Amino acid sequence: MLNWQPPEPGTDLSSSHGDQPSPESSAAPRSTSHPRVRQTYSNEDQELFSRYYQLLRLEGWEGEQQQALLWKTPVSERIERGTAIANLTPMGKPEPTGQGEWEQEFLCNNTSELREGDEILLSDGDPITGEVVTGNIKHISAEQVRVWIPEMITNPRLIDRYGSNIVHTRTVQNLLRWLQADAHLRELVAGKARPRFNQFSVPPRNDFNTEQNLAIERALQMQDYLLVQGPPGTGKTSVIAEIVKRLCQQGQRVLLAAYTNQAVDNMLRRLDAEGFHDYVRLGHDRSVHTDVQDRLLKHLASENNQQLAWRRVLSNAPVVASTAAAWSSEKYSPQPPGEPSDNNHDSPLHFDVAIVDEASQITIPSILGALRLAKRFILVGDEKQLPPLVLSKEAAENGLSDSLFSYLKRLDDDYMNSGGEADSACISLRVQYRMNRWISNFSSRLFYEDKLEAAPTVARRVLAFLPPVATFTHETQAIRQAIQPAFPLVFLDVRNERESDGQKSSNAEARAVRAVVQALLMRGIAQKDIGIIAPFRAQVANVRRHLFSDHEMSGWQALSPASPMSIDTVDRFQGGERLVIIMSFATSQTPGAENPLREFLTNPTRLNVALTRAQRKLIVVGCAPALETLPHFQRLLAYCRSMDTVITYCE
User: Fold this and answer.
1) Which residues contact 166 (CB under 8 A, 6 or more apart)?
2) What is the pLDDT of residue 286?
3) What is the pLDDT of residues 62-88, one digit of tens each?
4) Confidence class for position 538, pLDDT limits 50, 70, 90
5) Pick from 321, 351, 172, 171: which is nearest to 261 by CA?
6) What CATH architecture applies to the domain 73-163?
7) Predicted TM-score (pTM) above 0.85
8) How far is CA 128 from CA 22, 68, 121, 157, in A?
9) What CATH fold (topology level) applies to the domain 437-649?
């Protein structure tokens, strides 16, 4: 079970085993008690600690309740929830990794929401009383899954999602350790002090646009912190890499962090592409991209005296990178929580600047683990895209889903709108290099105050394809019209109330998606260039079933299990892009207040992510009368009608 009652500051949290609320209870704890904070701390410090400690209690309780479902619900229900994969068929024997661990691959019928990197239980079908081992997913597709496990079991048949309490325990520790951070840094995070900037010119980079160069200049001028808003496709990773190089040229040490391992590796791979290789990656082989594995700390510090080797490597590294969760680990803490800081600037874990990508996806308690280790920080994110993932609805509504990036940006917006004399602390990147202008214009108007522009190099790029390799009489005029390059953004109006379950899936839309994919493939569009997005796992699984099985009447041949075509939910697609994106909203009638689809359809951040993945062609599949009652979709349909690209689809 999980433990959400940390002890008094000054004790070893890693060995704490306080009273634990029972997962059998249905009522979350409502105690307002919390570890006492010494009176020497400011009111702001005490208020921040108290507020976020209570929110983390709520979040921890919700995590316990969800984990208890593993013991309470049958396998069939866990599969329906998207947290399990059953009936695994081993593809050969487990393979040793050379590090005392094993990898094993299975055939499966995967309709889950499990993804690469997720922590799991691998069992013989009964994770409670049977043979079971923890592990991680290394690779997963619709029909195959490859897992990492520390030891083998005899008859692996079932995978269950299994979230440990490690990350949440670290997050609580962050609150305690934050009290030992620099007082001015704490004031900045609490919003009690304005960030300061020096005034000097910085040579621009010739291949960067105005806002990108301004972000670099301000990053070098800052004395406290900088916010960089990076809407989709604006080249924020390139900006981060250039800032890192410029700071290192000045002899400064840089900490890199992000919400996901993928984003951390993207920053490092960009540095590699720029010819900068002097960095250390913290983490494990199984969660790190192969391109940067040779820069893992354990590979760079392989001497017998490992502690001394680690210190030597870290002390000499100008750049050290890992996830925000890893930076919260006690392993990378200069001192235990609750103990006074030694202010040792020679520590291998002391940095001049912390740069955090995906900062708008990280809760405030979670980001403190990285910020406490640096004098200054740069947060890169976009509050118009997905917010932090919070399990507890109550905790989210009371502020846990608010990121530090969003909070500081609101303060900065308020300051500038009130006529503040100092320069803004936020640089917004305004030129995007992903979408053509027909696709980007709508998101620019709806989410970015019409300030997001398509770069000239991409503004007029449209899909190019070959004549169809064969003629099929079943290909309708609507499909031929929908895929035309002359229509970069299309709404394909599908109406079939009988086949929609009214909740999360639609067979009619899945068939329409299959028809679109078939038409594109026949015209030479590669599978790797097509992405399909749906709001929920149910429609993702439904589309997969249609695409990964033959359909004789339409002449459709099933995709290979190894197909590179991406089919996923919006939350899993953030950061991704494809030449062609097909979106299926799986609704034939306006969702009611209790329908989970309504929350998605009325959530502007998720809609923004979904609409900004396509480079040259975006096909939105849905029922126009049902969606038009919702404000954002009313504007989307009006935009498509202005281009005459609302197309009625009939089978």
Assistant:
1) none
2) 81
3) 888 878 877 788 999 888 888 899 999
4) confident
5) 321
6) Beta Barrel (2.40)
7) yes
8) 17, 11, 10, 14
9) Rossmann fold (3.40.50)
